[in-house]
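Hi R.,

Here's the chain you asked about this morning:
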Amino acid sequence: MQTFEGPYVECPSRQLPLHSPQQPLALPEPGSYDLEALDRTAERLLGSIRQAIDKGKHLPGETRPLRLWLDRPWYYRGRDSWVEESWWIEAARRKWRADKNDQLATLILLANGDNEPREQICEMLSKYDYYEAEAFWDDLLWLFRDELPWPIDEGDELPTYSLNVGSPPPELARRLSMRVQEGLKIVQAGGSPDTSVEDAQQSALRMAARLDPAAASEWLSPASLEQLHEVCRTWAMSMNDLIALREDDPLDTAINFGWADIADLLERNPVFTHAYLDEPFGMGRFALGKLAARLTALTHASFAGRWAAYALNLDIEAEVEKARGETEATAQGLEGVMASAQAIKISLSAHRSWLNEQQLAAAVAWWRWRKAKRE
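And the predicted structure, written out as tokens:
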């Protein structure tokens, strides 16, 4: 084994690209596209999602189709438009009857008041006397927290819970709110010895992204909620860290609390478009569809429509070829397996899968935006 000796050098723990452009990159207005063609593309892609769910096939990225019910920004239960909740229930019921151990199908049915799968899950839970993260969906365990032989929330890492299942359980809402409050206190104090203001802001938004207004209002004061809103506004107005601008938590928080002004502020932030479209900084184009899906869940303004149209109209083959050039250029500086043709092929296959997934998300975004504009 090769070893290296020399003086100790303290490396920075976090180096993120900052950008200070004078103007945002311009996106075409939705009306500059062939709207009917985009409608047809969106309907075709949404049809492929419905068909995959009907047939139990995986989506790009090996995503289980029923997972879309659980995962925002794909679907917002109770207020989405591209598929009805009754359709999910029927799909889950078919899946559960074919496989009574399917936890996603069970979760959808239980969340909608169908208790037929409860006995089967209770029987499965009785075989475990400790928390086994790999054995169950956390969201499902929260529904059985009173029957579990172990405390679900005793660790530092709080098990996940999708707001599509319902408002967070009180135990979870309390602990999330406490962590939001801790972050806000550090922000108000101008930082702490071990936490910067920026890290405290991001921590508060990360926890708030898992809350809804009903749960938050039980544990956070109106003043704290307004401070949280101001933290989100600060991120949208003045963030010039390209990676931090691509984080989902601030937008998810804005969606949860109905803060549509965050979209207006992002539109005026000249750095925001660069975070997703500037090539020198990499991966933004692989998140375009989900960005559009979040924006169209937050606002029906033309700003959201521009992103939805742009993401849906993206030429996947051209993007894959662009990725090929970047991958081959990177491989020239490598040796062995990482520089092999097989490694490049695998990398491009992953790129294509990511782009296809983003186009599906863009179809969801476009459908939402167009439906809102017609109403």
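The mean pLDDT is 86.

Let me know if you need anything else.
M.
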